[in-house]
């Protein structure tokens, strides 16, 4: 049975005992008192499981939650705080909205209408697909759902334009769809799981929840729009091809009643999201209201059967586990013990805005390499108060530096949606891995300095 273990499981079996021994049998153990040491061991083991994917992520989450309760490391309201957070309910609403978009055929209709204007050139095609992916980020707050919806459509588009399976054109279209509906959308508040974890943990730990519009203004121009442009340029360079003109598509009539109702609900939801600075209603409750409408008999488009069959409980458990880690760190005050020593290694000081910004952004990026994207806010949010004191940045600015980290994917294993997209499309993961690495390097060299200048201009630092 031991021989059947995967490489990731072997890595976890080696790392967890090794890191535990280093934590217990070195002077580091003297830093902790009471239940802090077992809490630190559990948090470390959980982050190794998430980083290596030795177990399915939802099982890792359950292991963390169950052990925290069995060992009485924190009260239930702390351990299971993720299930009551806005992040959890944003995921639920995103899944329901995704089911409705798929089952009504609205997404397929809109994509088909867009495609007929994109076949005149390869550059226009790739640009259009990336743009559609970004647009989906505004109306569908689930990166996994967008990938599941958009990749099959992208494959049909590639086939209709004459790209054979395995050709550069097909690979370029797939990568444009997978990366376009994922990476730039980290600049849209409710569009990805790490964003939601950051919302939930900053809300529960620091009592601050960013508004949709302020988040969009701060991050979208550089980490959204400019990253999308950079993505298009890279795909055109790495995967050049020439599309065939698509044959005229016969009209399948106007919008059906179900499509029209869904379109109205989605436009209203988007309108409330964009105006949350006026009404101050959380994006989670707006999304949940839309999802509830979509479930109502006679009004909605999602049947009870579809809900029971297609709602992905594992994503909810993953978020609950990661938020549980953040709450455990905060409750046990481990962040105050470990955080200051880690932060002392960084060149942080009040008045050194550029150095502070680059250090915190790169810290978040490398945290994502170790702990995956979703682990960035779970790991760094509890340290935000100490970092604010060390840098002179506001608490809100410190929290927002995380976005550069979890929106910069260095290796594909960091991102569940990218790991899902490649097998779904039948494209070797090596293509996504190469694009991730090159895009990450260019993001650090080009977008990070521009992001700093944008923050300075807005007055955030």
Automatic annotation (TrEMBL):
Topology class, membrane: Multi-pass membrane protein
Parts of the chain that traverse the membrane: 12-33, 40-73, 79-101, 122-141, 147-164, 173-197, 217-239, 260-275, 281-299, 311-334, 354-380, 392-412, 432-455
Name listed for the protein in its UniProt record: Di-and tricarboxylate transporter
Transmembrane helix found in the keyword field: yes
Compartment(s) where it occurs, according to its Swiss-Prot or TrEMBL record: Membrane
GO molecular function terms listed in the Swiss-Prot or TrEMBL record: transmembrane transporter activity
Pfam families: Na_sulph_symp
Keywords in alphabetical order: Membrane, Transmembrane, Transmembrane helix
This protein's record includes keyword Membrane: yes
CC annotations in GO: plasma membrane
Highest taxon of the lineage: Bacteria
